Amino acid sequence: MDVASNIKHIEAQLPEGVRLVAVSKFHPVEALRQAYDAGQRVFGESRAQELAVKAEQLPGDIEWHFIGHLQTNKVRQVVKHVSVIQSVDSVKLLRLIDAEAARLDRTVDVLLQLHVAQEEAKSGFAPSELLEAAGRGELDGLTHVRLRGLMAMATFTDDETLIAREFSTVEDTFKALRATYMASNDAFSEISMGMSDDWHIAVQHGSTLVRIGTAIFGHREY
Ligand SMILES: *Cc1c(COP(=O)(O)O)cnc(C)c1O
């Protein structure tokens, strides 16, 4: 895998304003180093321990994004290292991150994860559930978390119509939140969606952050 040329190839196709998150989970530090040397500074990891180990071995100017399911007992380990937690799937988790960031006297950017795919195993808020929680004020009063936007995954399928429909649900939910409960939050501006096989569709539906692993680093060995 020529990591550097894969990154260049993707970057050349990304519309202006869309940033690339290099999803490096399960890949060794040497692979991340190649991406770093090619200029990549934003990396996504999905496991707390792996993120901590890599963050300690790689340069300090990397922006780490946590993109996996975050267990409450791993919040402390993750908050310490990340710029963004993309995968916040409950109000309880959001509050815990806020408390931990306060304890460390720092601010963490957060994306709320929406569940729009057909697989039950994927996590996240249902769109209506998130709008209702916002309406009840459950996203208010955060002091050390900045709500930056939404994250989502589409169904794993070849059906591009279905994928497009799911991404447009995310875009609609984002716009609804921004027009109402987030109207006074200028930082609420990001939609993270699109992976190796569906990012072309995602950017047509307002994605500002694409999370790409396989198309950069090759297949993962679990
Ligand atoms: C692994 C992962 C990706 C990257 O998937 P690829 O198909 O390898 O590009 C993106 N987002 C999340 C949440 C992931 O867990």
Structure report:
The protein has about 220 residues and is an alpha/beta fold. Helix content is about 40%, strand content about 20%. It has helices spanning about 5-15, 30-35, 50-55, 75-80, 90-105, 125-135, 160-180, 200-205, 215, and strands spanning about 20-25, 40-45, 65, 85-90, 110-115, 145-155, 190, 210. It has an eight-stranded parallel β-sheet. The longest helix is centred in the C-terminal third of the chain and has 20 residues, at about 160-180. It is globular and about 50 Å long. The two termini are about 20 Å apart. The chain binds pyridoxal-5'-phosphate (PLP). The site of pyridoxal-5'-phosphate has 13 residues, from strand 8 and helix 9.
Map the helices and strands.
Layout: H1 3-13, E1 19-23, H2 29-37, E2 42-45, H3 48-57, E3 63-66, H4 75-79, E4 84-88, H5 91-103, E5 108-115, H6 127-135, E6 145-153, H7 160-179, E7 190-192, H8 199-203, E8 209-212, H9 214-217
Parallel strand pairs: 1-2, 1-8, 2-3, 3-4, 4-5, 5-6, 6-7
Please summarize what this structure is.
The chain is α/β, with parallel strands linked by helices. The protein is built from 9 helices and 8 strands.
Sheet with most strands: strand arrangement = 7-6-5-4-3-2-1-8
CATH class: Alpha Beta
Average of the residue pLDDT scores: 97
Low-confidence stretches: none
**Which class do the helix and strand fractions yield?**
alpha/beta
| CATH-defined topology | TIM Barrel
Structural shape: globular
Which value, in Å, is the CA radius of gyration? 17 Å
Number of DSSP strands? 8
Bound molecules: pyridoxal-5'-phosphate
Discrete helix count: 9
How much β-strand is present in the residues?
Answer: 15-25%
Distance between the termini: 18 Å
Whole-number total of structural domains: 1
CATH architectural label: Alpha-Beta Barrel
Fourth-level CATH superfamily: Alanine racemase
Largest sheet: 8 strands, parallel
So what's the oligomer here? single chain
**Helix fraction bin:** 25-40%
